[in-house]
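[recover] target loaded
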């Protein structure tokens, strides 16, 4: 079996067996990855690459928004964050502005890191 195929199979298995909190973490990590690729696209003046990857980040953010359980008060906080990120991504894509993408990337890292902390606390029985 070729290495890329084995890696793809491992990732598929990882997604299929992940718990909801782990899937959310994977989505944050994917959004960060695509944001970095979009930044590289802007840096290389590859407008198509930048556009495609900003759209991928937008799709992840939209999915996270759609799956919020609004019966929890904290969901409104996430809605506010996701709404803001969506607006900024739209602006970044229209202007191909690396400063906006860097800001979005910073927020994505912050949310991802906080999510990891919550997951760790829950795993230790503190949450």
């Amino acid at each position: 079996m070729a290495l890329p195929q084995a890696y793809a199979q491992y990732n598929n298995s990882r997604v299929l067996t992940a718990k909801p909190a782990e899937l959310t973490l994977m989505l944050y990590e994917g959004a960060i990855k695509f944001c970095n690729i979009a930044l590289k696209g802007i840096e290389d003046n590859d407008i198509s690459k930048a556009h495609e990857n900003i759209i991928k980040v937008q799709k992840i953010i939209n999915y996270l928004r759609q799956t919020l359980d609004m019966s929890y008060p904290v969901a409104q906080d996430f809605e506010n964050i996701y709404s803001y990120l969506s607006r900024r991504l739209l602006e970044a894509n229209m202007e191909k502005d690396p400063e906006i993408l860097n800001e979005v990337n910073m927020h994505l890292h912050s949310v991802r890191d906080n999510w990891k902390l919550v997951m760790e606390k829950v795993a230790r029985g503190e949450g």
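[recover] notes: The chain has one domain: 20-123.
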